Amino acid sequence: MISSIAELISDRIGTMPASERRAAQTLIANYPLIGLKTVAEFSAAAGVSSPTILRFVARLGFQNYPEFQSALQDELAAQLQSPATRTLNPASSGGGAVSPMLEATLDNMRETFRHLSDRQLADIAATLAHRRGKTFLIGGRFTDPLARYMAAHLAIVQPDVYHLAGQEGIWRDRLIDMGKRDVLVIFDIRRYQDSLVRFAETAHQRGVHIVLFTDQWLSPIARFARHVIAGRTAVPSAWDSSAALFVVAETLIGAVTRQLETDGAKRIRELESLR
Amino acid sequence: MISSIAELISDRIGTMPASERRAAQTLIANYPLIGLKTVAEFSAAAGVSSPTILRFVARLGFQNYPEFQSALQDELAAQLQSPATRTLNPASSGGGAVSPMLEATLDNMRETFRHLSDRQLADIAATLAHRRGKTFLIGGRFTDPLARYMAAHLAIVQPDVYHLAGQEGIWRDRLIDMGKRDVLVIFDIRRYQDSLVRFAETAHQRGVHIVLFTDQWLSPIARFARHVIAGRTAVPSAWDSSAALFVVAETLIGAVTRQLETDGAKRIRELESLR
DNA sequence: CAAAATACGTAACATACGATACAGCGCTCC
DNA sequence: GGAGCGCTGTATCGTATGTTACGTATTTTG
After folding, report:
1. Could A121 and B98 be called an inter-chain contact, meaning their C-beta atoms sit closer than 8 Å?
2. All domains in chain B, ordered by first residue
3. How far away is chain B from the Cα of A15, in angstroms, using its nearest Cα?
4. Do A123 and B47 touch (CB under 8 A)?
5. Per residue in B20-51, pLDDT tens?
6. Where is the HTH rpiR-type domain (chains A, B) (predicted)?
7. Would you call B91 an interface residue with chain A, using a CB distance cutoff of 8 Å?
8. Which of A21, A75, A258, B159 has a Cα-to-Cα distance from B120 of 20 to 30 A?
9. Cα–Cα distance for residue pair A203/A30, rounded to 1 Å
10. Interval B239-255: pLDDT, tens
11. CA→C1' distance for A68 and D15 (Å)
12. Which residues in chain A belong to E strands, given as ranges?
């Protein structure tokens, strides 16, 4: 069973003529990056001619050079997507059904934050803290609880925070209250919900500032969003994981609270006394 | 000091117009592979036009697209050469306001799972999967979204799963439906809510099997619970973090789903056809 | 040792790719 | 409300790229 192109090559390198073998060896030596460059560069690196490279990839079973490159890219993508598989040391993972799930979740969080700069988070926090209008939050089938969670916290440190719940018709009608000064926080991961996309589009047309929490494949709502947070969701389970997005949400809640420290503290004391 | 293109992007993403920002976000989301594909593919993935992609790379300081791709490839090459550097990175993110929060959260999860054996989790999953009656879920002020999240998933793989929402009176009345064969999942972290404690006590008296998600200081409900999950909640923020509990919840959801695999799959297919 | 077959590179070709000019649109600022 | 500016997509263009045909060199075989 051959799963990678590198294996395929070492499998057939014996049957190749001299020049093609040199091509194969240079590819293995700087795998797989040389293969992603142009035929001319590849051939120069290997010290052979361009047609030799093309004959080489043809012998591997690819119809043409681009097809070969796509295969390499797919392989790379799979490798980069799950850092777990690379560092996976079966010894440490006690063999229980739990650990892989936890490991994947931790990886997802690291990856999510690796693609998310402090600057971006600060920007979003500032948007949420210093918006001049209202804040609305909404989520999809599985992510709506995240919207609720965030709303529950934000509503304590600032006024005019609303979670949009219930039937579609109900929150669609709230669009009439939304304008340029307002912020709409949307949670939407696969499978993306049409109703949410439509909602986001309309809100966008009304000039609402949209902050989107989505997965790495980006909900179509990304087109309308001013800020996009792409969290990793893949775990060894039947379901996608929203844990990474949850942590980002908590981070933002913390950041907003900090930015509103002075006003927020006063507000919290007021709330306490209301009990 | 900017060492990677990803950093360069997050540094300048603030100064970019909307469409270029979309390009930036899609690149970050599938970093860096999208950038190695053709302009046409990149633009399609981002939902913008080709010139926008070119303007985007120009803004990053590259003379042309190939030069941009070469830079990405060089970066990838460096990364692939030394796998250490990519896992080593969390410290390098500059000590911004983010890292401590993330670090603390990751620690919380590790600690939480360290005190939680596979056996315990399997037991709880079995309880939830093979209960003979109904499952009820409820949470406190900030944790109710977690109850909702879990309910949303469990309700798909098995029947008779109910989230108790709304006013106290409403769910108090549901006690009349609860008995020995039923399971009640409660989320309760500081500050523990009296109403929940009373509710749990009554349910316990009726013989309901209680599964409690709480923090490391244990809600008073622990006295009535058959299973207790104690998650770490401390983070450098004004709020406690429910992230660890969230991950445990997801883990349980996954485990229950696996245990119900055969029946659950049938049920999921049925649900799909209902749409 | 000769003849054939295979391997390999040079050079011409066609295509698909990146680049550019331009026009429409929305937004902001008087 | 109007003028100006900046952003974005469409259409076009030139070119770099992959591809192919062909001739020479090299090896193989009878």
Report:
1. yes
2. 5-87 (1.10.10.10), 99-274 (3.40.50.10490)
3. 29
4. no
5. 998 998 998 888 889 999 999 999 999 999 99
6. 3-79
7. no
8. B159
9. 49
10. 999 999 999 999 999 99
11. 23
12. 135-139, 161-163, 183-188, 209-215, 227-231
